[in-house]
Amino acid sequence: MLSVRIKKRLGDGKRTAFMLDVSFTAGDGTTILFGASGSGKTTTLRLIAGILTPDDGKIALGEQVFFDASANVNTSVQKRRVGFVFQDYALFPHLTAEQNVAYGVKTGGKKERRERARELLALFGIEHTRRRLPREISGGEQQRTALARALASDPQIVLLDEPLSAVDMRTRARLIDEVDAAQRKSNIPFIYVTHNQAEAERIGRRIVVLSEGQIIEEREFDD
Amino acid sequence: MIWQAFKLSLLVVSISTVIVTVLGTAAAFLLAKRNFPGKELLDALLTLPLVLPPTVTGYYLIVLLGRRGFIGAYIYQLTGWTVAFTWQAAVLAATVLAIPLMVKAARAGLESVDPQYEIASYTLGKSEMETFFRVTLPLARRGVLAGIVLSFARALGEFGATLMLAGNIPGRTQTMPLAIYEAVASGEERNAQALALILTAVSVAAVYLTNKLNRSVVTG
Q1: B2-219 belongs to which CATH class?
Q2: A161 partner at 20 to 30 Å CA-CA among A48, B62, B131, B190?
């Protein structure tokens, strides 16, 4: 169970451009963070991952405290063990698909890491891309590689930042099912950021709606 | 004379290029990716040898490191050794004069690396050090390589500061550019010609290489 209660002021020095103040919990399964662009979804995700630091509040995943302003705890990004899927994937452009995934694998020698990477690529049906660079594969394949890489690091939670916004409609429908299957198989919480209503309804079991830095609605879907 | 100067230049430039590559890349990294007090000052300090007349830079090096210099006096007191008029002085002069080119080129390369890749690496559990060597540096390699080539060429051609700090002692501190100067002054046309040809060839090769590196940055 992830519990989040954070405040973060964004702006340049004196002027506050944006005030984020959210608190919610996310259990196993996929939780959707839904809202228009500029509502604070991505910022929330980055605060959970430790890429940004909250001004106040507490973030905990089960027993592990990621951040606690009152106890002065701020676990580094590296130690939070989050799998992060970026909006534009952020696949390392100088590494092949297999090397990208192997980069995330934490245990074993070079050979074992490569084998694990190949397994993950096979799981997403893109083993054929393993020797290709990110720019040489399709958007859908890049998305799958990014998801495989996030899972390779043996995360305890996966954060996805509008992961399907760069792929076409047909691929999107297929990928939604794949993300869902990956969640069920790994059995860890997924937090999925989107501004697409259809996507939100199709994938999530629980939805948290953000607007201008505040949560305006929380709701469970029937499975 | 030619052979001696050639050997010395090769030694001086090899050592200074290694120093420039390590220190220059580290400084470029700090300037490109970190914020700290005194950043502007460091930037200015590292640009100065590019705009100052080399003899002035050489003069400051004497003031700082000469036998009676601010730091040099202590070194002389402690060890009885001074860097002035040694081949190491030629290395020092070449390093100081070449480092701005390394910093500029490497910094441009490092700044062109999208921070998103570094963040992605952190989320995969990698330390800042590992991220630098496995993600940032490979992605900035063309800028860094261009910096190495440019600073190599600059070090090879270094004249003014070397003359000030190291002097012009044949076989000890007389690098190729100094040997050319002396050959012309004493009417040894053929020696001057041979040395000038070597330096021209290296410079043309350096320009060709940096252009090639820069082009491949654009076309990916």
Answers
A1: mainly alpha
A2: B131
